[in-house]
Amino acid sequence: MNSSQQPRPARLTVGVVGAGRVGPALARALQQAGHRPVAVSGVSDASRRRAARLLPDVPLVPPAQVLELADLVLLTVPDDALPSLVEGLAETGAVRPGQLLVHTSGRYGTGVLDPARRAGALPLALHPAMTFTGTEVDVQRLAGCSFGVTAPDELRLAAEALVIEMGGEPEWIAEENRPLYHAALALGANHLVTLVAQAMELLHKAGVGHPDRMLGPLLGAALDNALRSGDAALTGPVARGDAGTVAAHVSELRKHAPGTVAGYLAMARTTADRALAHGLLKPELAEDLLGVLADGADHVNGTEGDDGR
Q: Which of 36, 102, 146, 188 is 20 to 30 A from 207 via CA?
């Protein structure tokens, strides 16, 4: 269903509990769609500054007052803090019947909102599959961003309409699949940041003056190829079965950046397994390569020379 076919939600007053990087950006996007932010709750100085920057003139108030003032409340706190927050708000009578209560956790569906649902709230789980900076650029990045949406059937259209109003694309995720969905996103996005940061550090040690400029086109092309072709996009010494090159990599990493060796070996083994399974790595070349990786792992684990190996 495209945006022209979606019902437009009534203009709502919007509140944010947890002024981290996500909440103010979503509230700002809803404001641009015609809704009215009326209250924000934030504890740290950084969250208060963020709220002031993205939602100027919106008052900072305690969480219970946010619920008192808003028709739609965004609960944008860390995953581990969400259950206790919902339980506390429900126990204190802060939740109002008919109030839209939206959390943005990737891990949880609507079950975590059950205490509030029993108090009459309308539960929605809207998780933007995007990394946030806490700046105005986040609002722009919501254009075309996929949201993992979980909601009761009777609220599905309302949930999807809210996502579209924020510029996003709704993707329905079943309640029981939320943890797997979130694991997939963390594996791809969070680990990518770690890999890129490590690669830049290594290039800097190798004397490259602008690692970001070198990696930008390469990683951009690799990401595009991977999204288009999956495992068929694999290239490099592991996929080719160049055991000698991989051994040299491990040796250099051990000398200059020992903290990266375990990660390199783990990713190389996973790459080798996938390349073998998809016919990219020739079986006759895989034996030597896997031997190098096993030797490297033994060195990391301190098991060289173990007769029980």
A: 188
Region 204-208 average pLDDT: 97
Q: Is 235 exposed, middle or buried (0-12, 13-18, 19+ CB in 10 A)?
A: exposed
Q: In Å, how far are 281, 289, 302 from 242, measured between CA atoms?
A: 10, 7, 25
Average pLDDT in the 210-230 region?
Answer: 97
Do 174 and 153 contact (CB within 8 A), yes or no? no
Element (H, E) at 102: strand 100-103
8 Å CB contact between 75 and 103: yes
H helix or E strand, kind and range, residue 128: strand 122-128
Long-range contacts of 7-12 (CB under 8 A, 24+ apart): 7/157, 7/158, 7/161, 8/161, 8/165, 9/35, 9/158, 9/161, 9/162, 9/165, 11/35, 11/36, 12/36, 12/70, 12/71, 12/72, 12/100
Q: CA 31, 90, 132: angle at the middle one, nearest 5? A: 40
The structure tokens 């999807």 sit at 160
Task: Read off the pLDDT of each residue in 97-107 and give the average, rounded to a whole number.
Answer: 97
CB 42 within 8 A of CB 94: no
Tens of pLDDT, residue by residue over 30-45, are 999 999 999 999 888 8
**Token duo for residue 77:** 């706190």
Taking a C-beta distance cutoff of 8 angstroms, is the pair 130, 142 a contact? yes
**Residue 244 near residue 232, CB atoms below 8 Å:** no
